[in-house]
Amino acid sequence: MLSLALAILLAPQDVPQPTFPATAPQPAIRLWAGDAPGARGSASEDVPTLTPYLAPDALVNGSAVVVLPGGGYGGLAAHEGEGYARWLNGLGIQAFVCRYRLGSHGYRHPCMLQDAARAVRLVRERACEWDVDPARVGVIGSSAGGHLASTLLTWWDLGDPQADDPVERRSSRPDLGILCYPVIDMHGAIAHRGSRRNLLGDDPGEDLELLLSTQLRVDRDTPPTFLWHTAADAGVSVRNSYAFADALATAGVQHELHVYAEGRHGLGLGPRDPAGRRADELLPWTGACAAWLASNLGAAPLRSVLEEAVLLEMRQHRQPAPGPVTADGVEGGPVTVVARVGDVVALRREDAWPDPPAGASVRWEGTDGSIVDMRIRAVRGGLLLARMERPGEARDLRAGRQGRCLGR
Predict the structure, then answer these.
(1) Domain residue ranges of the chain, discontinuous segments joined by +
(2) What is the pLDDT, as a whole number, of residue 270?
(3) What is this structure's pTM?
């Protein structure tokens, strides 16, 4: 097959492609406890859900991807849902398959976008439960699911800090996107008519068609994106991927595009039944994407914060030295980040200062000027375990970072 790559990222090409782990789906979770916005009823097709597929503990690397199957906005293709989820699990990535509402059940834009955005917010809200770093949450979509993913990549928001629902306070911005033979355009000659009809109705009008042509909404804040397509795709023209990639290049957004000469529409991973398949039975795009994911989401195994922190402390046998510091009547001092999972971080005290009580509010001030507000969960010897209040604002808070922990 012929491969054309645009703006190729410098990523390792020898990232292992494991066989699919025998991961089973967790029970599906309603995206909203009550009715979804604009719900037309209470049947299963009216209740969007998120199904977690959790990677084996030995592989977990702290990242997550929300999976949006294709199906022309009229159905959901299983091989672009569970199949992708289990492949991602083999890479150590927690996967979450979103069953969004469909045009075949009477739904129209923006219901699908609301469901996809809510899925990303929900993963971030429950990140600690699933061993996920809220700053490493991506999205993957195929065909019409690729259009939905590209819509979220260009329509995201940072959340509503005043919302009563804590999920709605979370950002819906994916940290990256993967678009597989995506529908992009909704207006021109390359538009996929079935997807457009199911998403926008029979006569949406030019303005709405242009509004949902996502290549027109790309800007410099669009997340990094990986795209692949086949030139022979007779279902969705490859020019959709070209259009989105061109918009990314114009905006200066990191991206990678692979176009293969042969292959029908809807290929997915290759085999329809992923159980026990080897890497050499998957389509070539999976290897390129695995390398890109390792470069953009990280691929090092990650244990729980407490386990990692305690093991490091035992290896180093560090003893706090004298030299307490006081801020606003609460003692604090220099600290080093030992580990982080989700919104929980372990900090090692570098000076001797009294234990803060559980529940105390503290502020991390990094040597680079960054500020992160936290609440103490527990104290273990020279270690502090704290939960970040707004983890999305602490993307660079990683092991080894140094700063000060002060009362507030």
Answers:
(1) 4-297, 305-407
(2) 84
(3) 0.72
